[in-house]
């Protein structure tokens, strides 16, 4: 799609901070209407009243269409063509996660567990009255779309697999319990990043990870050379069961936090700087030299931190076996942070998901939108160097086996 230039109306800007949210609503409305106009220009090959040999058709007015969002119900002017062939995916792409959020709020209202704030938001978005049958019908339709995406066939192989867990709060019967959203991201041999799977479970439970990996394999996941994750109990055993001999990279960001968490407050600053040097090492030999220097300085000042460092040292530097150009992005699960932030942003509105199905709908709808952007956008990696390296570098190593035996 062509680049879209958006012009902001100066008259709208002073109202952005108004308490009633009307300024933000009008701004979003203005931006999306400009997006629709740009899509029409691209479709026709010419702007309004423009004479061009590239023109493929002519305009035929507008039709209004509503779009429910968290800033209110927007009225958008959708351009029409004389032949009726113009279509836009704006509503489908934008509304999937928005609808999931609104639906979660509606479920809270009909179940009688909503706060005054949530009730007010749903009344603004949907009107004061909606029935359980309306909510059920909306949920069925959205669940079908999300589950179709979750169960799709995977076009492997995926050499790099990143596994992450995000803890959310879900209502079960009369209780509120923590549940982990397990998320799998893969990078294909073509260098494209894709979101491969989502399920709910216990991030420290081997059975939860086992179920997820079994599902991914049944859908076509194969060719995994490296798994990147935090040190979740049970995860490594599940990985070894399904991908024997695969290399495992312990997330350096989580590992750093674990080490510093065991250090006295007075030592954390200097220890963090030293660990930064360690994780920037270019070879295992250089890293071991820096590690010995760290032990000389901190073994008595922060003994528990040194025990933690010693225990996870080798696993945190697995990535040094791979070509340099892939190391920064694969040494941690930080590439997942944008996903986590977007989930958290919506979770702050809901606070507690009314049920597990609601959590799957909202998180799944959001992830499917990211997946579409990633899988059709710019490549995450140029894999040529990796594929050449793979021909010469045996990948079957005891790096994970030694951990789980």
UniProtKB/TrEMBL annotation:
Write the record's keywords in alphabetical order, separated by commas.
Answer: DNA recombination, DNA-binding, Transposable element, Transposition
GO BP annotations of the record are: DNA transposition
Cleaved signal peptide residues? none
Species this protein is from? Leptospirillum ferrooxidans (strain C2-3)
Homology family: Belongs to the transposase mutator family.
One annotated GO molecular function: transposase activity
* Tree of life domain: Bacteria
The residue stretches assigned to a coiled coil in this entry are none
> What protein does this entry describe?
Mutator family transposase
Which InterPro entries does the entry mention?
Transposase_mutator
Biological function? Required for the transposition of the insertion element.
**Pfam families given in the database record:** Transposase_mut (PF00872)
